[in-house]
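FORM 12-B: Structure-to-Sequence Request
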């Protein structure tokens, strides 16, 4: 898939998610783009998969392009970035989940950032 088509897909799917949920998360976007399956996310949440990148469809270059395009979309839509903590589900102590193989803090932050509509004065 070309970079142009990836960008079109990100913009189209991000707009749908924003309309449906009021926010966009990279995980939800990857699900919507068919780069991830719900079962894989569930397996990751229950610690059956060590890091999410392992099951995402596409190479890391394309994935990086998707994440950068999402960030650009959020700036254009005047969305507020909100860091979200992803902890494991199930029995036992809740562990912080990893998105990437390397565990690079900057990359983990990008994956865990949700983009939320800013409240306007009339909403308050």
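FORM 12-B RESPONSE
SEQUENCE OUT:
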């Amino acid at each position: 898939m070309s970079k142009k088509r990836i960008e079109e897909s990100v913009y189209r799917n991000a707009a749908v998610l924003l309309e449906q949920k009021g926010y966009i998360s990279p995980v939800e976007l990857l699900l919507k783009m068919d780069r991830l399956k719900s079962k894989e996310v569930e397996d990751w949440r229950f610690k059956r998969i060590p890091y999410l990148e392992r099951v995402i469809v596409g190479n890391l270059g394309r994935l990086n392009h998707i994440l950068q395009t999402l960030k650009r979309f959020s700036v254009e839509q005047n969305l507020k970035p909100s860091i979200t903590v992803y902890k494991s589900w199930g029995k036992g102590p809740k562990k912080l989940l990893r998105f990437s193989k390397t565990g690079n803090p900057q990359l983990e932050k990008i994956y865990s950032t949700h983009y939320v509509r800013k409240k306007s004065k009339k909403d308050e």
